[in-house]
Amino acid sequence: MDRLHDISERIHGFNEALGRAVAWLTLAMVLLTFLIVVLRYGLDMGSIAVQEAVTYLHATVFMAGAAYTLHHRAHVRVDIFYRDLSERGKAWVNLLGCLLFLFPMCLFILWSSWDYVLGSWRLMEGSREAGGLPLVFLLKSLIPVLALTLIAEGVAMTIDNILILRSPQPDPDEAP
């Protein structure tokens, strides 16, 4: 059981570090957006590359930060019934959610994006815009990164929920 807990903690730790790192990209997005506005309206200049950089940063924050969001339970959840469940009931919902929804969705994303991403790498695909960034192949690579980090976090959540379900239940007749 300790080994499973260690695996779970390492996965959570990785996604925590990744999420905190990419969170700083939001500051870069704000600064670049400010620069775009100043250049466009203050100096009557523009840069396709800087505009695309904001899009790339936004995609990176969203795709690489999804597992961090899941780890912190900040994702969209309909809490009509969930909020009133016991810890074990929540563990069952979370476990089944990972097994029936999260893992199949992530595997589908990996499967359906594989050729798309490989094709982009084969071409070393760049921007279609003159003066744009030549890194579209890296941007598209975030799709499998999203799926893989979510699968990893799902594994950690599955372990956590199994440990909760396997822990001894307190006696309801016993006063705390």
| β-sheet strand percentage | under 5%
Number of domains: 1
Overall morphology: elongated
Largest sheet: none
Number of strands: 0
Q: Mean of residue pLDDT?
A: 89
SSE sequence, one letter per element: HHHH
Structural class: mainly alpha
Termini separation: 25 Å
Stretches with pLDDT under 50, minimum 5 residues: none
Percent range of helical residues: over 70%
Name the quaternary structure.
single chain
What is the gyration radius calculated from CA atoms?
Answer: 21 Å
Number of helices: 4
Would you mind describing this structure in some detail?
By secondary structure, the protein is mostly helical. It has one domain (2-166). Helices cover 76% and strands 0% of the residues. The protein is built from four helices and no strands. It has helices at residues 2-42, 48-71, 87-123, 136-166. Helix 1 (2-42) packs antiparallel against helix 2, helix 1 (2-42) runs antiparallel to helix 4 (136-166) and helix 2 (48-71) runs parallel beside helix 4 (136-166). The radius of gyration is 21 Å and the shape is elongated. The model has no long low-confidence stretch (mean pLDDT 89).
Task: Outline the fold blueprint.
Layout: H1 2-42, H2 48-71, H3 87-123, H4 136-166
Helix pairs in contact: 1-2, 1-4, 2-4, 3-4
Features:
176 residues; mainly alpha; 4 helices; 76% helix; elongated
Brief rundown of the structure:
It is built from four helices and no strands. 76% of the residues lie in helices and 0% in strands.
